[in-house]
Structure formats: C-alpha cells, structure tokens
Amino acid sequence: MAKILIVRLGAMGDILHALPAVTSIRAALPDATIGWLVEENWSELLTARGHKADPLAVSPSKPVPNLIHTVNTKRWRKQFFQAKTIAEIRGDFKRLRATHYDIALDFQGNAKSSVAGWLSSAPEMAGYVDPRESIARLFYKHTFARKGEHVIEQNHQLAKEVLASLLPGGELPLVAPQLPCDPAAQQWVDEQIKTLGIASYAVVTPGAGWGAKQWPPQRFGEVAQGLAKHNLRTLVNTAPGEESLAQAVVDASKGTAFSIKCTIGQLIALTRRARLFIGGDTGPLHIASALGIPVVAIFGPTDPARTGPYGSQAIALRSPDSETTFSHRAGPEQGLLKITAEEVIAAARHLLISNPVTSNPVTSNPVTSNPVTSNPVTAGSATTSPSTKSPAANSKGEQNG
Q1: What is the pTM of this model?
Q2: Of the chain's two ends, which shows fewer C-beta atoms within 10 Å, N or C?
Q3: How is domain 183-386 classified at the architecture level of CATH?
Q4: What contacts 295, CB < 8 A, 6 or more positions away?
Q5: What pLDDT sits at residue 313?
C-alpha cells in the first residue's frame, strides 16, 4: 500500500488546519502508511506524550499518522555548526528516508518545509502552485491550484488531487479531525477541576500569535464575570511567556477566572471537557473547533472566512472596520477593539442556550458544514458569523500558533 509523507512542521493552528485532510486520507486509505514531519514541540497534536505502542499502529493515543518524524529546526539554526547538531540532522533524515515514502505532500509551502520534504527522497513531491515562499516550487514535481475559501477546504482539495489515483473512485470525503486521547492528561484535568472546586467551565485564551490579534485582557475578565452569571467559571489558558497577560484577565474577573498552565496534551484534555471556548485567531481556538466545542471567535486583522473555526458550532465576531492584513503589528488592531465584552457575552449566552448539555460528537461522520463565516449577520459593531452544527472529532510546549 502507499506510503505518504505529510509535511506540516508547524505551527499549532496550521497543523490543525491540515489535520482534517490527513484524517480523511486515513479514513479513505486505512492500509496506507502515513508519516508526518513535524517540529517536536507540536508533536502532542498528533500523539500522546510518552506513547510507546507499536510505532506503526494507530490508536486513540495516536489516531491519524502511523509514523511521526520530529525535527527541531530552531535548535538546529542556533547550533548548526556543532558536530552533535550535524549528526542529529543526518540521523533524523536518514531515519526519514528509511521509510521509503512514495509521495511527500507539503501543506506548508516554504523553503524549510520543501527542503525537508525533498530530503525524504520521496520520488513524488507535491504542493501548491502558489506556496508561501516561491522557492518551494523548485522542489515540487507536481503543483496544484488552491480550491476553496477556508484553509481546511484548500488542504482537503490538495490532498484529493494529489492522491486521486490511489483513492476509491478518486474521491476523498472530508471527515472530522481526530486528536489524541491522553489518559495521563485526562487524569490531570480531573485533579485540576477537583482542586479548583468547579463543575462547569469555559476556556479562554487571551494570547495571540501577534499583538494585532490580541483582544484586551480586561475585556476577557469582564466576559468571565458574565459567564459566572450562568454558573460557569473561566479557565485562562496560560501559554509560556503570557503569565502577566493571564493574570490581568484574572484580576479583571473579580474572582470568576483562574489561570491554568498546561502542556498541549493537557490543553486538549481540558478543552475536550469545556462547555465553551472563547479566544482569538490562535492555535487553542482551533483545538476547540476540532473537538466540536462551541466557540466564540474574536477576529481582527485576519479573516474568519479563511482561518476561522470550522466544524463546530461557533460565532465569529469581527468589526466591519477591520482590514485583513498579516502585518505582525505589536498593538491591537483598531477594528478588534470595537468588539465589546457585552457582544462576546451575548454570543456565549446564545451558544450555551443552544448547547445545554456537553456532548461527544461522532468522529466518523463526514464534515458537512461550510466554515462559520457563511451567512454573516450584523450585531452591534461586530459582524457575527454563526455556523451550522457539524460533526467534529471527539477525540508542554508552546501553545500559540
């Protein structure tokens, strides 16, 4: 059977946007060997920490790829001329080549990912005709145009076209992504909930990939106060380096929010049991969406039609004054600041009423809905984009991405 290498090194949100396509490949080609080349700090998105079962087997702890090939390009760049680094690089790519992949599929599309895929020695390598960095095309044997508005749709279509000759009838039904289940992380969540003395909670992530996407922490605190009126406590996901940001949320919450630090695996387990997730365009939001947790998404300079929550019931809030840009500015985008705490609380209330009991959506049904940005309606100063309910997966390192 075919041996397929997925190249998506990072970051968190980008890996989660590729995961539905790869989960679909797993469902359509159950006997294929699927490998994933990924930065080691993101590997918990694909396998539970410390998982030691048969390296080729899939399981609830490692549900999608058979093999996970980790790299640490950040450390390599810092120590490139050291003998141990050169030996590590040679060893990692030697083991990658030993699998003898038939095709490498580059979802990332930059120089780093394309060179890494090329070093696998797969005879076929494919990617987008318009990759993020044009140099990547030099390493592709096959290129394909982007199809679809949302990144998840684009990745799904790329996988379908690249693997058409292998797929039954040339079709690749889009199925819900699957994230690993980590028993140790689930036990950790039990202990945290018991220690905090809470029964029902929402998860918020105040951090973002860059400052322009970061909603003010004081407003997250106001939202926590609003959620408390619905007997919901707020857990503030605190990524490394964001301790002061999380504390600002806690301080503004008047005792209704708690800061919590966790690994990626623990964040998955924590989010899986949440009633609601609230945050901006960053990796933890896409974890919640992949798990089918109701989401209030707060968007500014990035477009939720392209990178918004997909596959769960969600409301994306974005001001009509926001302009789409990928400029990594330090300060919050002005349109983002026009979204009020009251609008976020109203969106959260709507989702809580619509989802009175937390359910575990089925993982094997195809995703049938469009991204949450279809059929937008206006609410106050922000554009509200409700989704239709669709199946989603039931499924430390840095978190934002």
Answers
A1: 0.90
A2: N
A3: 3-Layer(aba) Sandwich (3.40)
A4: 276, 277, 278, 279, 285, 288, 289, 309, 312, 313, 314, 315, 351, 372
A5: 95
382-386/257-260 β-pairing: unpaired
- In sequence order, the 6+-apart residues with CB closer than 8 A to the CB of 195 are none
CATH, domain 3-170, list 3.40.50.300, 3.40.50.2000, 3.40.50.150, 1.10.10.10: 3.40.50.2000
What is the model's pLDDT at position 390?
38
Angle at 158 between CA 155 and CA 162, to 5 degrees: 145
Nearest CA-CA partner of 223 in 201, 195, 204: 204
Confidence of residue 47 (pLDDT cuts 50, 70, 90): very high
pLDDT value, residue 379 = 34
Cα(242)–Cα(270) distance, rounded to whole angstroms? 18
For the chain, residues classed under CATH 3.40.50.2000 are: 3-170, 183-386
Query: Which helix (H) or strand (E) covers residue 214, if one does?
Result: none
For residue 156 the two structure tokens come to 């799904």
Measured in whole angstroms, how far is the alpha carbon of residue 289 from the centre of its chain? 8
Mean pLDDT of 181-207: 96
- Between CA 293 and CA 314 the distance in angstroms is 8
Helix, strand, coil in percent for the chain, rounding step 5:
40, 15, 45
Overall average pLDDT of the 182-193 stretch:
97
Under 8 Å between Cβ of 333 and 314 = no
Task: Tell how strand 382-386 and strand 377-379 pair up.
Answer: antiparallel
